[in-house]
Amino acid sequence: MDPDGVAKAFVEHYYRTFDTSRAALVGLYQEGSMLSFEGEKFMGATAIAAKLTSLPFEKCAHSVVTVDCQPAGPTGGMLVFVSGSLTVGEGEHAIKFSQMFHLMPAGPGNFYVQNDMFRLNYG
Amino acid sequence: MDPDGVAKAFVEHYYRTFDTSRAALVGLYQEGSMLSFEGEKFMGATAIAAKLTSLPFEKCAHSVVTVDCQPAGPTGGMLVFVSGSLTVGEGEHAIKFSQMFHLMPAGPGNFYVQNDMFRLNYG
After folding, report:
1. Which of A117, A118, B81, B113 is paired with A40 by a 20 to 30 Å CA distance?
2. Which UniProt keywords apply (chains A, B) (predicted)?
């Protein structure tokens, strides 16, 4: 399994889900998963999905610019580091963001998000 | 030990060292450490320090804007996610950057960098 390929496939899947059916992101997290979203902390799939679905916009579009990935160590996890830009609602101005995921194996060829940290990079 | 306090102290130490005596960063990495720097990959303290000290500027100044941190899981590691801006040489224009570190315990109260991923966020 090519780690860079897995990371790119995960990132595509994650943002496509975020931009089209945000509530379905719940399936990517587990009970011990953690999210830091603009400095606010959430734990567990339910709390994380509640935060993401309650964000005050209906439409959004992520555009990924870079994806880096490294093995996280002996646990089989993988670190994925993303930069890109984000358009919200009918907004014309894209806002830069960066995000990191710590993916953990969840069965053959499958991963869940153990750690997720998201920040906007205001210009 | 307060993880947020440890993360902030590490980040201050890392960028102060980077900006004043870059070669000393070698002490923060080990043989299995990995660096992705603007998409280029390096492994091991020696290769990583060689890359960082060969960057084509002598003066630089990091200004940290946000530091997020989460425990990485059962290995005792810690994930640290930084955003900020960077001025190089006599440059007047700061460039935004984001960077993530996976810190692993290296004795009481001490950590080394297992994973390091760095990206500039061009504006």
Report:
1. B113
2. Cytoplasm, Nucleus, Protein transport, Transport
Q: How many domains does chain A have?
A: 1
Asked if A73's CB is within 8 angstroms of B77's CB, the reply is: yes
Residues of B in contact with A68 (CB under 8 A): 36, 39, 117, 119
pTM score of the predicted model: 0.95
The range of the structural domain enclosing residue A62 comes to 3-121
- Burial, B2: exposed, middle or buried (Cβ in 10 Å; 0-12, 13-18, 19+)? exposed
In a mutagenesis test of the A interface, which of B8, B31, B70, B113 is the best target, namely the one with the most A β-carbons within 10 Å? Answer: B70
Is the pLDDT at B91 greater than 80? The verdict is no
Q: How far is CA B60 from CA A96, B88, B93, B119, in A?
A: 23, 4, 12, 16
Helix (H, G, I), strand (E, B) or coil at B113: strand
Cα nearest neighbour of A83 on chain B: B121
Tokens standing for residue A82? 């993303």
Q: Is the pLDDT of residue A123 over 80?
A: no
Tens-digit pLDDT profile for residues A56-115: 988 999 999 999 999 998 777 999 999 999 999 887 789 999 999 999 999 887 899 999
- Are the beta carbons of B39 and A117 separated by less than 8 Å? no
- Of A11, A94, A35, A16, nearest to B121 by C-alpha is A94
CATH code, domain with B98: 3.10.450.50
